[in-house]
Specification:
By secondary structure, the chain is mainly α. Helices cover about 60% and strands about 5% of the residues. The chain is built from seven helices and two strands; from the N terminus they run H-H-H-H-H-E-E-H-H.
């Protein structure tokens, strides 16, 4: 399926490295928001038995997704499997094996940006949302960072640091 998507032009403005970093930003914001939900105690009576365990467990799932995004970003920026494995406390071959399917999915999504659902009528994006629609993700994440990060004095704290694609001549 090589049909175009509504966001192809926006996506073309970004390098794959920048798109991977944007996905990592998005997943990190999800982790932060999930952790923030565990800080306040006022709603504890509204949570059933085990409810806070459920929230904490969800953080693990969100953090795992962020880890996959971090590995994808590091590979896109040229980090070796040895460098990645060093930070995970595993060897390069084990690191590559652990994340190979995720990287294959990431790379394949640029060739096949969506698949049809089981009904055959609805498009399902293959790229993570932040990479599929990067202009919206930049706007949303810049606002998220400005509102939550203390001592950040940048109008575009997320998008200003991304490596943009060079225009084709």
């Amino acid at each position: 399926m090589t049909e175009t998507t509504p966001y192809d032009a926006d996506r073309a403005l970004f390098t794959r490295e920048a798109l991977a970093r944007l996905v990592l930003c998005d997943h990190a914001a999800d982790v932060a928001d999930g952790a923030a939900g565990l800080v306040a105690t006022g709603n504890d009576p509204d949570s059933g038995p085990g409810g806070r365990v459920s929230q904490a467990f969800q953080l693990i799932e969100l953090a795992e997704r962020a880890l996959v995004s971090a590995v994808t970003y590091e590979r896109e920026r040229g980090s070796s499997w040895a460098e990645i494995g060093q930070y995970l406390g595993i060897g390069p071959a084990e690191a590559e094996e652990r994340f190979a399917a995720d990287l294959d999915g990431w790379r394949g999504a640029f060739d096949v940006p969506y698949r049809l659902d089981d009904t055959g009528r609805t498009r399902v994006p293959q790229l993570p949302t932040a990479a599929y629609d990067p202009a919206f993700a930049c706007s949303r994440l810049d606002t998220w960072a400005r509102n939550r990060l203390i001592l950040v004095d940048d109008e575009h704290p997320v998008s200003s640091g991304l490596t943009m694609a060079t225009p084709e001549t």
